Amino acid sequence: MEHRHHKRKRIGIPRGLLYHLSLVLLRSGPKSGSELTEQIQEYTDWRPSPGSIYPLLSNLQENGLIEPYEDGEAGIKRFKLSEKGLNEIDSHPQHEEEFRKRNKTIRKIYWRLMKGMPEEVYESFAGIMDSLESTWNQIEDNQVTLFKGILDNTKAELIKLGKEQDE
């Protein structure tokens, strides 16, 4: 019997992510395709190819979601969100919820299935992650240092626990 070699599919970037990230990043100000690519890589550790980013920018411009931004810098073509683009982002709050659900699913697959974390430990871990998110959404600017300190202390305790196990 002949074995067939199937190409393994990588877990890829979710459909529509590049579209959404590009609009969100353009919300903070005009950017070129290469600037968008660099920022996406900074936030995601994934670098979109020029064959993905430039056709997307062209499509966004054709659909009136972005427009050229003239800043006088020769040789660099930047884009900014149009009013229609701003409305597009504002009218899709479900994108955040969709990312949140996907993150929870991937997180559970990774920790429960791939790392073998027991259910009761995972429930505590998931509770911490959910608390991080809900707290972050409510803290004031003057509480960021306190928030970071709590995270740093928790990290230090986990490192200490890991070192105790090594002894």
Structure write-up:
The protein is mainly alpha-helical and 167 residues long. The chain folds into three domains: 17-90, Orthogonal Bundle (Arc Repressor Mutant, subunit A), CATH 1.10.10; 94-136; 138-167. Helix content is 63%, strand content 6%. It has seven helices and three strands; from the N terminus they run H-E-H-H-E-E-H-H-H-H. The protein has helices spanning 17-27, 33-44, 50-62, 83-90, 94-114, 119-136, 144-166, and strands at residues 31-32, 66-69, 78-81. It has a three-stranded antiparallel sheet with strand order 1-3-2. Strand 2 and strand 3 (78-81) form a beta hairpin. Helix 2 (33-44) crosses helix 3. It is elongated, with a radius of gyration of 21 Å.
Topology readout:
Elements: H1 17-27, E1 31-32, H2 33-44, H3 50-62, E2 66-69, E3 78-81, H4 83-90, H5 94-114, H6 119-136, H7 144-166
Helix pairs in contact: 2-3
